Task: structure prediction
Amino acid sequence: MDRSSHVNTNLRGEPYEKKTEKYMIKNTKAFSGFSVNDLAAAKKFYGQTLGLEVEETSAGLTVNIAGGNGILIYPKDDHTPATYTTLNFPVDDIERTVDELASRGVTFEHYENMTDEKGIARGISKHQGPDMAWFKDPAGNILSVLNEG
Result:
């Protein structure tokens, strides 16, 4: 086959010039994702409890957050909750946010010698990072709200 006259086409069949860039992913709109074991419970939690915009997609759910890129939440039969924080929500007022989420049924994690009675780690006053409070989604994934001061 003579490749000298080959034209690259995109998925719509339109011709395009193949670019060779040093950093091919530098300007992509990356997004994150994680698994859950119950999409219906996740949709209710992220949509109703947390008040986020949630869309059903062929892959699972997309949670739309400020900044434009959604977060993919996908079903996995043998889901194991992440042992690290999968999603951080920066907030202006951590006290008010924790109180509001608690009133909606969110239970905050308590870590010995780290969090107070509300479940907030007071990093700012100790010069040890942001104030943070951790909680779990119905699948056991760890999320946080944080205020950097």
